[in-house]
Amino acid sequence: MHATARHVVAAGTPLQSLKQPMNAKLPLRPVTRRPLLVLLTLFTGLVVSCGDNPDAGDVTITFHHTVADAPLVFNSVDYINPAGETYNVTRLEYILTDAMLVRANGTSLDLQSAAYINAADPSTTQWTKKVPGGQYSTLSFRFGVPAGTPFGDLPNSGNLNQMEWPAPMGGGYHYMRLEGLVEAGSEALLSHLGPSRGTDYSFVVDLPIDLYVDGEPAQVPDQAPGSHLHVTMEVDQWWQPNPYTFAGRGMIMGDADAQALLSANGENVFSVVPISPGL
Ligand SMILES: [Cu+2]
Questions:
Q1: Does residue 24 belong to any structural domain of this protein?
Q2: By 3-state DSSP, what share of the chain in percent is helix, strand and coil, each rounded to 5?
Q3: 64 CA → ligand 1 middle, Å
Q4: Contact 229, 211 (CB under 8 A)
């Protein structure tokens, strides 16, 4: 489920009109419904057509983690997977690589080459970066680490170093450690995803966004100062649509079927949501 942002800007339409002489009627349609939106659209067209980005602005990206649409609560809440098994979550950490903002014309702006996110540590769940002005249509990142990246290749930070995938199991980095307890502790939930036996289970996530950066706070009336993207990982999406059940799984780091299941389901765990209370 990808909730699209609220500010839908049709960048192509105004470009056509702006190529006409300046005395042409710029607002081709009656500006009755959303005049501010139309103005924003025109301005976006100008920036794009001039081919430069005069205004940089801060873009903040916050990662949220939810289960059943509510913020993830560690250790206490018993959740339930589609197969009816209950579980809680005691740990959720992962690595994203090649995070970038992509413009409609296909060019991109690098945000983070490698980032460690620990859902229990707010200092790891938010990025802020000065971004050139313009319109961005996709937030893209790889979940995990590109194939063939040996351990030690990512920036030498403590957080990344503790994500080592054991050399006898293929080496490299864990993409994710998602742990908890199943059925009130009858067994452990140990969903570790990584380059099991050297196979690449990482995947690229492209999230459609409608992000306009111009360095001015609150350019869009219902948008907070600066630009803020809220990315949500819905933890329960890891268990579906391909059924991933817990009973008897044990440690899956050498289990190709389990790795493939999580990798396939993982393509649907992220979405971008508008700002909403409680997240
Ligand atoms: Cu592991």
A1: no
A2: 20, 35, 45
A3: 23
A4: yes
Share of the chain above pLDDT 70, in %: 74
Report yes or no on 14 lying in a domain: no
E strand intervals along 26-78: 56-67, 70-71
Taking the centre of ligand 1 as the mean of its atom positions, its distance from the CA of residue 81, in whole angstroms, is 21
Q: Which range of residues forms the domain containing residue 191?
A: 56-273
Tens-digit pLDDT profile for residues 73-87: 999 889 999 999 999
Give the pLDDT band (50/70/90) at residue 109: very high
pTM over 0.70: yes
Q: How many CA atoms lie within 13 A of 46 on its CB side?
A: 11
CA distances from 126 to 106, 115, 196 (A): 25, 10, 29
* 240: in domain: yes
Each residue of 22-48: pLDDT tens digit? 443 444 444 444 444 444 444 444 444
Q: 151 C-alpha vs ligand 1 centroid, how far in Å?
A: 14
Provide the domain count of the chain: 1
Residues with CB under 5 Å of ion ligand 1 are: 192, 253
Residue 249 CA, ligand 1 centroid: distance in Å: 13
Q: How far is the CA of 92 from the centre of ligand 1 (A)?
A: 12
Report the chain's mean pLDDT, rounded to a whole number: 81
| Residue 58 alpha carbon to ligand 1 centre in Å | 36
The region that residue 149 occupies, defined by phi over 0 for left and psi between -120 and 50 for alpha, beta otherwise, is: beta
In the reported structure, the alpha carbon of residue 179 is separated from the centroid of ligand 1 by a whole-number distance in angstroms of 10
Residue 106 maps to a domain = yes
Residue 54 Cα to ligand 1 midpoint, Å, equals 46
